[in-house]
Design brief:
8 helices, alpha/beta, 7-stranded mixed beta sheet, 20% strand, Rossmann fold
Length: 230
């Protein structure tokens, strides 16, 4: 197994934000949104029109909350990121989608959230964990701010076992991208966690380690509904 090689925690140059926003995330975002909305429906019941509050950590340019809210008009999202340049593009994306009334953007550190305990019915995050040197701090904050009976849905990259496999994934999924985008994907794979590392994190934070599963050749997913006290 190749060792974890950290990348910068915050991608906050204009060039990085533009490159990230322009990469083709459409299929990954679509699948993420569909999985999240299954959890929303399970919580509210089919046909229920009450609003559901979600927190999106590491939203980047807000493409995922846009996808979610375009599919379900009862969802309300607080979308956070630590990168100012990402949030600038996210604001533009919200205006273009006409969703600024249901998605609010906040600059926030996922390791120390400015949120009260049990504030949200669901916490979601895509590809944030691999940016965090000590990701347990983020998991603990997620557990703190999600309501009892709420859900946690996290998806991130899975570190390959070998350099050869890493290069194969870069070629397969970013072969048509520009050099900066290929390097971003390469570095993210190298910074990602293994399944065993995620299981250990969950256990340390009081969550069941079997909540994480490998869900593609390059992703792991944590999907978990918390107990609702009697």
């Amino acid at each position: 197994m190749i060792p974890r090689q950290l990348e910068p925690e915050v991608m906050d140059t204009r060039e990085e934000a533009i490159d990230y926003n322009s990469m083709d995330h459409s299929e990954v975002n679509r699948m993420f949104a569909e999985d999240v909305l299954e959890l929303v429906t399970a919580r509210t019941g089919a046909g229920n029109q009450r609003s559901v509050s979600l927190l999106d950590l590491g939203t980047g340019t807000a493409l995922i909350p846009i996808e979610v809210c375009q599919r379900n008009n009862c969802v309300r999202v607080v979308a956070t990121d630590l990168a100012v340049e990402m949030l600038k593009i996210a604001e533009r994306n919200l205006l273009q989608a006409g969703l600024e009334h249901v998605i609010s953007l906040e600059r926030a550190d996922a390791k120390q959230l400015p949120c009260s305990d049990q504030s949200f019915e669901g916490v979601i995050s895509n590809s944030l964990i691999h940016h965090i040197p000590e990701p347990g701090s983020v998991i603990r904050e997620i557990v703190r701010v999600v309501k009892s009976g709420g859900f946690i849905f996290l998806r991130d990259l899975l570190r390959p076992e070998s350099q050869v496999e890493l290069e194969r994934l870069v070629k397969q999924y970013a072969g048509q991208a520009n050099p900066r985008q290929r390097q971003l994907f390469h570095d993210s794979l190298h910074a990602a966690l293994t399944l065993d590392e995620v299981r250990a994190l969950l256990e340390q934070c009081g969550l069941p380690p079997d909540a994480v599963q490998k869900t593609s050749d390059r992703h792991w997913t944590v999907s978990l509904v918390l107990p609702d006290p009697l």
